[in-house]
Amino acid sequence: MDTSTILNTLIAYGALQALFIAFILLKDRSKGLFRLLFAALLIIEGITLLERLLVETDFIQAVPHLLGISHPISFIKPPLMLMMTAAITVKGFKLSRKHALHLIPFGLMLLLNMPLYLKAGTEKLAFVEDFMNRVPSYQSFDFYFSLSFFLYIGLYVYWSIKRMNTFRQRVANNALVNWYRKVLIAYSVFLLLHLIYFAIQPLGQLSFASINQMSMLAMTFIVQSVAFKLMNKSVLINTKPPDLGDLEKREVQEKLILDQLELDKIYLDDELNLKKFAASVAIPQAQVSSIINQKFNCSFKKLITQYRVEEAKRLMLNAGADKVKLIDISFQAGFNNKVSFYRAFKEFEGMAPSEYLEKVNREKK
Length: 365
Prior knowledge:
Elements: H1 3-27, H2 33-57, H3 70-73, H4 77-89, H5 104-112, H6 114-117, H7 121-133, H8 141-168, H9 175-199, H10 201-204, H11 208-232, H12 247-262, H13 274-281, H14 285-296, H15 300-318, H16 326-332, H17 338-349, H18 353-364
Helix pairs in contact: 1-2, 1-11, 2-4, 2-11, 4-8, 4-9, 8-9, 9-11, 12-14
């Protein structure tokens, strides 16, 4: 079995995998908007990979009228990516008529491809064969028209990642947003490499067939990573965006919580618990817990412990020449016993408090 056959087998598997995942997502009766949009994206990728694979393997000779199907629908992918982002970052997001404006490029490309669709099968085959073997030129309109697609999809990917970055400033631990952001970053890297390769084609006299197979293989790997993640974490796709409510009100609440920690150092109270903390900022316990979980990606208890460890480090660093008693440091930092202090310090710093103190003393000398 030669290399080309192996690559084509992998690509065929990726195409079928994309369609299979889409079927699974659509079959689930509890499907939300993100699931539907994601299934649509995977169907487009599956069709695109299958058509390009048919061209690569010459099986297209048997079904020439399938040529050109994937080109217009590829212009649906960028809006889908952005709408998927909105579906997982905006509570209650729904599609409306204004979102149809994003499909204008798809409509235009469909009209531009109509002459190809009306051709006879043999004419379609001749057209595509010529296109695949043609080396692009910097003087060609087709070259710059193809480059414009990279700009078009790049803007949507950038816009989507930017929206998720803004969302993550408030909600750091939404599993679906974090995962989808990684997928889009991986896709943007693939897109950039594809763009560079395409841009230097006229210089290296490289055929489109080689970049076609390279891009198909890269997309296959992305589909496979998606499939693995969905199988590895079946609950991931069901994650819903939190209700951030009034952002201004939320900002005020976040500031109250941070002020209690940074300015008032409430964590020094060794009897502090969530109920007491919530009362100090006049915010319901559940809301305090939710804000801390989303803002700091950890529980209330862990956040307080982290602040206490940082306070203990500061005390050790600023201790005078007299011998420092670690038990005193632990109480001053808000811990109510030596065992919890040692355990927490080792968890966050990877060393015992005594080791850290020795290190500080060595650096002072």
